[in-house]
Each structure stands twice: as structure tokens, then as C-alpha cells.
């Protein structure tokens, strides 16, 4: 069957909806590079961005082991890379049980902190029952995804790095996010209204992807009703982050991002080939098949200087590397939707000064921005602590309440807000239900 014939049928029926076949106890989910579901059909590039190419129902499980009572559908859809070349990726969509599907309901695109090239860290794999994704931060974000569902909102969880793990690439994650929402809205079996209010949320690497989606949404997907974007500790400046983390406990993160960016920027790959030692090239190659936590633990306190033939500071100044840093820096466009940004002042991973600069850039451009600089938290802790604030802020956007005036550099600690503890209690109840495999209420 040719593509034109397929395109005349409903998007879900092009290839035929994959039958839902529950995994047998102890069975493993197939890795993305081995699973035919991820392979787009011939001619898919002629479809419109956001077109569903294939769908299937899947079982989710915490850590791949504890099955969840959540309705999950995965969609393979057509999207676009940073150069405008069509490609395909997957989103995992959850719709609350008992939702009134006769009325437009909110949908949140939640961007996980994939922070890896390895397909084991992609949400479409790591969240599934039978996944072996130990060392993937994504598996722990199931708590927050479940918290969104508990609000009565649908959730799209895209593989925003695409099929090839393009972590750190500019624009492309935004296209993947927005096309994932388009796919969810266009999938008839999900019964989501086209005018549903849409929220975007992500933290750290997921905050970076959310930032790109917020920056490109008005031009790339103007038909989507994006009412708010919450960016938690986004990676605002890759160059500064690399230099700060190099040689620290977290040095595996920039090393892995370099391995990812080499796939996106041929000139950067050429610099690496010319100046990396044999051990350096072997290291970067190994990081392509390493989960996030494993990369951090394996590369902790190592310096990239040990793996190149000239001083790192000198190599950083080459035109090819500077081009990558400039091209991947957020702030080139001012997001149209209202924004909430949260950042820990004493963050050991993302510099508050980089996020201050990004916030100032957005504010100067007329963005509707609330920027919360948290006085007591650090990088890991701020994500769950800020969740009540984010969900409350997002609920206001879905309800159409007035957007607060731009507030920059608010330093009131989250821990001193009484609403935080009520929200954390609710999040704790959700976590208990996830761990004990009970249905959400």
C-alpha cells in the first residue's frame, strides 16, 4: 500500500493499530532501536507534522516492575528536526479514567529529563512495564506524571530528543513537543478536543525542551491553545554549563551532551575527531549507550582536558565549538504563552546567573513571566518541592484566570510557603499509590 492510500484513511489506521498484547511476567519491553513500532512507514515525510503514523496501548510500571492502573497509549508521529528534515518520534499519552470527553479538558505536555543518548532513557521505553532502564531519571518522573493525571488532566510525554537521542539540539525538542500534542489531539481514540487548553512543563533537561517549545510554539504551531509553560531549572547556556560542571561530580552530564551534539553538528564531530585522544573517542562512544545516572557515576570528577590534545579553554574558543554554544542557547525568541520559571539560587548543576540572564532576556522582550528564585533548595530537591506551585499555576492558566504581572527574581523560599506542604502531601499520596500499584483518585 502506498502512502497516498494510507493518508486517505484515518491516521491511526495507516499501518494498523498495534494490538495491545500484555507482557508476560518477567518479559522485557523491546528497546527503541529493536522495536519495529518506532520505524516510520515509507513515505511518512509527506505527512503533515503531528500526523499519527502508528499507535498502541501499553502498560506502564514504576521502575519497569510495579504495574500502574493508568490508561496509556503510545503514538508514533511525524515531526521535524532542527534543519527542517522530517523524522518520527513517539509520545506516551495518558488520559484520566472517567474523564468527561464531551468537554475540552486540559492537556499537559510533560518533558522528562532524559539527559542521555541511550534509548533506555526515552520515556516511551523507561515508563513501560518490563523496561530495564536502571539509571534513567525518567523512571522517577512517573510520580509527577501521575500527579498530573490525578488533577484530571491528560498528559503527553514525548521522546523530545527524537529517535537518535539529540540531547541539547536547538529547536528540535520544541518541534517534538508540539507535534506530540498535535498527535494526541488528532488521535480519534483519545477523544481530546482540538481546542483543549495546553500546558507545557519540564525540569532540567526537560526544562530545556520546554523552553524550546515555548519559544517556537507561536510560529510553529499557532493553532495550538498553549496557555502556559513552566520551565524548571532549564539549561539556559550549554557553554557555561559545560565549563562549570567539567571536573565536578556532575561532569558526566556535559560529556554525554557533547556525545549527543556531535551527532547534530558535523563540524563539532570533526573537532572531536581531530583533537580527542583514543581514550577520549572511546569514552564519548561509550556514553552513547549509557544511562544518565551511570554516566554521572562513571565520569564523576573527571575533566575533559584529560581526553584532548590541547587545553580545553583553547578548544572551546574554536569557531565550530562557539557556534554550537551560540546556536543552543535559549533566549533567541520571546515565548508567547505566559511562563513560570523556577530556579534554585544554590543550584550545583545549573547556574542561577544563567537563568537570571534568560529571565531578563524574556522580560525585556515583553514575556509574561513569573520567575521564582528559590533561596533554600538545590537542583534535585527543587523539582518535587516546586511541583505544588507549578500545578497551582497551571490550574490558574487552565481556568483562564488573569496572568500575574511580570515578576523577576522573587526569592521567597518554597519551603516557607504553607501551600507547599499541602501540595507535597497530595504528591505523597500519589507516590504511595504509584508504589503500591493502586488506582489514582
Automatic annotation (TrEMBL):
- Region listing for Disordered, in residue ranges: 26-48
**Cross-referenced Pfam families:** LIP (PF03583)
Superkingdom per UniProt? Bacteria
Record PANTHER family? LIPASE 5, PTHR34853
Q: What is this protein called?
A: Lipase family protein
Q: Which organism is it from?
A: [Mycobacterium] vasticus
